[in-house]
Each structure stands twice: as C-alpha cells, then as structure tokens.
Amino acid sequence: GENVEQHPSTLSVQEGDSAVIKCTYSDSASNYFPWYKQELGKRPQLIIDIRSNVGEKKDQRIAVTLNKTAKHFSLHITETQPEDSAVYFCAASMGYGGATNKLIFGTGTLLAVQP
Amino acid sequence: DVKVTQSSRYLVKRTGEKVFLECVQDMDHENMFWYRQDPGLGLRLIYFSYDVKMKEKGDIPEGYSVSREKKERFSLILESASTNQTSMYLCASYSGTGVRYEKLFFGSGTQLSVL
User: Fold this and answer.
1) For testing the chain B interface, which of A33, A105, A109, A110 should be mutated: the one with the most B CBs within 10 Å?
2) How high is the mean pLDDT in each 10-residue block of chain A (115 residues)?
3) CB distance from B96 to chain A under 8 Å?
C-alpha cells in the first residue's frame, strides 16, 4: 500500500524566513497531493493541493512542487509569519474512485515561527 | 456552512468496554474516513467508506470495525477497548466519486481515554 514519509518532524524559523517541508510517496499511481495545516487544538484544514498533471502550484506565500519521477513533493512557505506556526501534514491518494479514494498522510511537521 | 459532527469531544472508557464513536456529515458526501492521531505518528487511516454499506480497511484496522447504514453517518466501533487505543479520533468526509479528489472536511475530534 501507499506509504508517505515526511521531513523534518520539527522546523524552527525566524519570522520572514522561508520554510520547506518535504514528502516522499511510494505508490507511483498516486495522483493527488494535498497539504493540511493543523493549528493547536483545531481540526486539520486544507491549505493547498496539487495533482499529478502539474509540477508546481502557488497561492500567495504558499507553493507546492511535485517531482513525479522522484516521487516527492514539497511545501514552500515564504515570508513566514507567527500565524504560520502549526503542524503541517502532507498526503497522497490515487483517487480513481471507490476503494482507491483513501488518503494517506505523512507524520506531520511542527513549524515554529519565532518573532 | 459545511459540518462534520462527532458525537463526543471527550470520552473515558474502561478496558474491555465496547465503544461507539459517531460521525455525521450534512454535505451529502459519498466518502467518509476515520483516522487516529497520535503524537509523532501523524494521521493514520483506520477505515474508510466510499458509499453506503461499503467499507475498506485502512492501515490500522485491527481492533476496530465500522458501520455505514446511512450516507450521512459513519460509526467507528471498538469491540473491546484497550489502553493502546487511547488516542484522538478524527472523522472526515469529502464529495467525489471519480478521479476528482476534493478537500477533506474534518470533524473536531474525539479524545478517547481507555483506563
């Protein structure tokens, strides 16, 4: 089955710096790669996603890149702010319908942005 | 607004008890999931369902079962609770029957303690 590895497990940056979180996946049939942000005591929420037909996607200060050959994808946050502090999860899915719709998450990265 | 509701925020049970965790969504979503969240282990998929009465095992189904008799409700059952099932349980749902994977909506979670 699909396995998703995520690194680093913790990341501390200064406000204004960039942060990068990396994930690798095992199943080459995976075609959907979302990123979720979970603030302390709250439920995870989708912040950005990418499908296998594109290599990069940006949304303001957040970007995700995908390398299908190497089976890895990354989250990039620029100009970090204290409110970016949270746990970030990557995930992967084949999503062809039915039983392939399961979404497998990485182990999470705790990002701390120091003011 | 979209809602995924979990019946209990906190639950304390004794070893050997049968435990029911209920999840209801009001968005007419086909796909529903149960994850458990443990520090350092991320979100691990227990079971998911892509249609009424359909269920698929996730990565850690041992000790759990599920029921989906109605589209809006997905129940997680711990047949005989054990201390290693103490965890945060998150329910999630999304719409989509084919390749178009959409974002997951999470419930607020149930923190289960088994004594």
Assistant:
1) A105
2) 92 98 94 94 93 90 96 97 97 79 91 96
3) yes
